Amino acid sequence: MASTDNQNSSVFKHFNWKTFVSGGIAGSVAKTLVAPIDRVKILKQVHSRHYDGFGIFESFYRIYQIEGFLALYKGNGAQMIRIFPYAALQFTSYETFKSLNKRIFKDKSGNVFNSLACGSLAGITAVSFTYPLDVIRSRLAFQFKGEHVYKGIVDAVIKIYSESKSIKSYYRGYLITVMGMVPYAGISFSSFEHIKKFVLKNNYKYLTHLGSHKSSTSETHIYYELTVVGKLLCGALTGIVAQTITYPLDVVRRHMQLSGMISEANTKMGIIDTFGYVYSKYGVVKGLYRGITLNYIRAVPMVSTSFCFYELSKKFFGLKTK
Predict the structure, then answer these.
(1) What is the CB neighbour count within 10 angstroms for residue 8?
(2) Is residue 321 within 8 Å of 41, Cβ to Cβ?
(3) Do residues 122 and 90 lie in contact, with contact meaning Cβ atoms separated by under 8 Å?
């Protein structure tokens, strides 16, 4: 996910409820749209015995046939509790780091390395506050009808804690998540900003149009902004690039999060051991990149929708989207 420019004089003005809510809405809509794909992706990544050997579309049909339509959204309740603050924090943090970057580096603030750093810091900030909810959501989504380990969110919280009798149970795979978040969030935010600038600079037909914004002094500013199609296209390209680079880290993270459900022997494995385990047992294509096709199908609508709803929400609240 990425964001657009907010020209505010103070870095702290980025922390307002309009930016926060806009980010939360964008994340919630995007994640709900792809929730069924996320469920299948998790099951495929960690080789669930109930769906191993089935193709992507076969898995969708099998879930629907055996567990029912709502099973495609299993774990989405926990996901929504997590994703609203996660997306809100990520977008708001990015706006803040970007503003701080401009104040410190001035003319040099627009280079690739600076934008990568701002995106990475925003991702780390968001994931650090919401990671336990991602673990809970993954456990709930991994369950199969008739073999439920957890009765719901509260039961999952209690049982996950009992695994090590400490908060560490909620942060299994956290380090690998942060390692994946640094390049993913950095590439996502940076790519979107640069792709957007390129499109706006060339003023491509159907991708840009004239927009307006009223400042605090009631002055109306006219500028070119992305159309809905432009937002979708820029977001789609951004999502594909970022997913390709960081996907293996996501696979390793899922194995670590679900280690207690897959095999007791895997619960003590660290990042390197888990990476080696997945590679040696399944290889690159069927292991580290298992489910990548599904992730592409997921990334395009999710990232694109996220960009659209963030900027549309900002515009609704009277914030600048240039």
Answers:
(1) 17
(2) no
(3) yes
Range 31-61 burial, b when 16+ CB lie within 10 A, else e: bbbbbbbbbbbbbbbbbbeebeebebeebbe
Q: What is the pLDDT of residues 1-34, one digit of tens each?
A: 544 444 444 444 446 788 999 999 999 999 998 8
Which residues pair with residue 213 across a beta bridge? 221
Q: Which residue has the higher pLDDT, 61 or 23?
A: 23
Half-sphere exposure of 137 (CA within 13 A, CB side): 20
Q: Are 211 and 321 in contact (CB under 8 A)?
A: yes
pLDDT band at 264; cut points 50, 70, 90: low
SS3 135: helix
User: Both tokens of residue 32?
Assistant: 């709900």
User: What is the per-residue DSSP string for 151-171?
Assistant: SSHHHHHHHHHHTTTSGGGGG
Give the whole-angstrom CA distance, residue 167 versus residue 132. 9
Both tokens assigned to 17: 């409820």
Q: Do 309 and 29 touch, CB atoms closer than 8 A?
A: yes
Distances in whole angstroms, Cα of residue 172 to Cα of each of 48, 135, 254: 19, 8, 10
* Closest to 215 (Cα-Cα) out of 104, 319, 72: 319
**Owner of token pair 């870095």:** 11
